[in-house]
Write a structure and sequence with these properties.
alpha/beta, 5-stranded parallel sheet, globular, Rossmann-like_a/b/a_fold, 5 helices
Length: 157
C-alpha cells in the first residue's frame, strides 16, 4: 500500500519529535505529501465565585484568556516552524496546521478535508484508569477515522 498524504498529529511533549521523524521517514519512502498538525487545547480559567462573573471581573478574565491564547498560538507557530526547517534540510516540503480545540475532533476534520490516507500519531503510556478518565486521542483516532493510523510508541532508552 502506498500513502500519498500523511498527517502527523503531534502534541507538545518530548515524544513529538520521535513521532514527527516516523512520519518524515514514511513521507520520504512513499514520496508523500506531509502535513504536521497540532491542536491547541484551551483549559477553562478559574473564574472565582459566581458573583465575580459580572461586570469588570468577567471582562478581565476574558482579556487574560485571550492574551494567553495569543501567546500559545505564537509559541506553537514557532515550534511548528522547527519541523518545517528540519524537513527542508532533508529535502521534504511539508505544511503545518494548528487549530484550537479538541485534538480528536480536529484530526478527524483535517483528515477528511485534506484527504489524508495515513495518520501518524503518538501514544502516551497512561494507565488504563487514566485513559478511562482522561481519554486517549490515539484511541479515538483509531476508532473514529476512516484511514490507516500508525500509533507510534517511543522506545525506552
Amino acid at each position: 500500500m502506498e500513502y500519498h498524504k500523511i498527517l502527523v498529529a503531534i502534541d507538545r511533549t518530548p515524544q513529538a519529535e520521535y513521532v514527527f521523524h516516523q512520519g518524515l521517514q514514511l513521507a520520504k519512502l512513499y514520496q508523500s505529501q506531509l502535513k504536521v498538525f497540532h491542536s491547541i487545547t484551551v483549559s477553562p480559567m478559574i473564574l472565582g465565585s459566581p458573583g465575580d462573573l459580572y461586570g469588570q471581573r468577567l471582562n478581565q478574565v476574558a482579556q487574560i484568556q485571550h492574551e494567553l491564547i495569543e501567546q500559545e498560538i505564537n509559541e506553537v507557530a514557532g515550534w511548528l516552524s522547527t519541523f518545517v526547517n528540519y524537513a527542508a534540510q532533508q529535502g521534504i516540503s511539508i505544511e503545518t496546521e494548528y487549530q484550537i480545540g479538541e485534538p480528536g475532533y480536529w484530526i478527524r476534520e483535517i483528515t477528511k478535508k485534506w484527504e489524508a490516507d495515513l495518520i501518524v500519531i503518538g501514544r502516551r503510556n497512561r494507565s488504563e484508569l487514566a485513559e478511562l478518565f482522561l481519554g486517549s486521542v490515539s484511541n479515538y483516532t483509531v476508532h473514529h477515522i476512516k484511514c490507516s493510523v500508525l500509533v507510534v510508541q517511543q522506545p525506552d532508552d
